[in-house]
Amino acid sequence: MSRPALSPVFCATNGIVILSADDQSVSFGMLNDDNNVLKIRIKKTFPDYNCSFRILNSDDFNLKLSRLLSDDFTDEQNLESIKNNNRKSIIDKIEGDAPVINLLNSIFLEAISMRASDIHIESGSVESIIRYRIDGLLVDARRISQERSNAVSARLKILANLNMLEIRRPQDGHLDVRSDAYSLDVRISIVPTIWGESIVLRLLNRSDSPFTLDSLGFSKQHMDCINKIIETSSGLILLTGPTGSGKTTTLAAILKELNKNNIKIISIEEPVEYRIEGITQIQVNDELGLTFDTLLRRIFRQDPDVIMIGEIRDVQTAELAVRAALTGHLVFATLHTNNAIEAVYRLQNMGIPAYMAAAVLRMVAAQRLVRKQCPYCKTSGCSMCNNTGYSGRTVIAEFIPVTQEFSDLIAVEPDIEKLRSYLKKKPFTTLSDDAKEKIAFGITTEIEVKHELGDN
Length: 456
Hints:
Blueprint: H1 8-14, E1 16-21, E2 25-30, H2 36-45, E3 50-55, H3 58-70, H4 79-84, H5 99-113, E4 118-123, E5 127-134, E6 137-145, H6 146-159, E7 171-178, E8 183-192, E9 197-205, H7 220-230, E10 235-240, H8 247-258, E11 265-269, E12 280-283, H9 292-299, E13 306-309, H10 315-326, E14 330-335, H11 340-349, H12 354-360, E15 361-373, E16 390-401, H13 404-411, H14 416-424, H15 431-440, H16 446-453
Parallel strand pairs: 2-3, 10-14, 10-15, 11-12, 11-13, 13-14
Antiparallel strand pairs: 1-2, 4-5, 4-9, 5-6, 7-8, 8-9, 15-16
Helix pairs in contact: 3-5, 5-6, 9-10, 12-13
């Protein structure tokens, strides 16, 4: 006996999809669980099966439906038909006669449902692989033919106002994608490869509000350090760590706390990942000459109390950050260093005199993100964690409060070992110490920490 099936057109028209089926039963997902007429009709259509029904929200329904519709991809679906399609990028809309649109929609919806931060579409010799970055790691999602991959690439280029015919040069762009619950700013990077194109889509959820500080996973000791930062009126706060270590999320959560007071906060970011009402957020645009240092010079006239610099990349930005801190502003900035202590030397290497760094620094911190054990399976793998054994991430960190004693040490340009020796005599929790504590509490695992920190 053949398995029950519904046509894509029927599913789209009636708001119903098949979720699962075996030889005896079939489970249906419905947009409207009160549609009893449809339920009776379905039961009459499949009298030999035990039919059950459950309600789906619109995003889950559209994901199922768009996957069903995207399977109807024929050779007649050519690039000209894609080009002639309108430029809508609303993923709630399902077009039964446009399989490539539904394929792209299903990719976006699946990525959202899996909490992905990035989508990778990578061309191979025979087919393309689609992967999602979830909790920092890439997860294989599906494989599609090169024909489909080329069609998706063309569709993305049209939506992002890129050159659809250009396949030999890299292209960057962005587009807006919306669903019932999400508004995404999608950053697109397309690079030619020997097999075709590599496409990376960075998903920035405009619907997200910043996380609260309590939800990020900082220890009580580190939360005490953060609360001291919030009470600080001037100086320079440095947060370090590699790309993807959660620095922007932490700073956004801190700014959200500071925003409760009657102060002017200006941030310079690339890109603006969290939109915070009440804060003046400026996005860097190198093509227009709106670099970090150029914008930083301009915002002094905006009378800010607090300034957030998304990244100190060069000596000009470093000098301006120090100048702002010296003139009574509270300045937050990020640096790419391995740990907190190295940030002090990074400033000196960028040309900031040791005595000036000592005068403005109030706190130096470093952080990483590690995956948390899945609460349902405890790393054995289950459907709730996409069989990875992990679900979500937490922060591990180290904070160095710049006391007068530590400031005096910085001012005389000691070697890094002297600073480390000083910290060993203090109640200082390193990244490794914080990680061991989270392992002991069953929050993460040794394997995960070793993957992030190495053998440190």
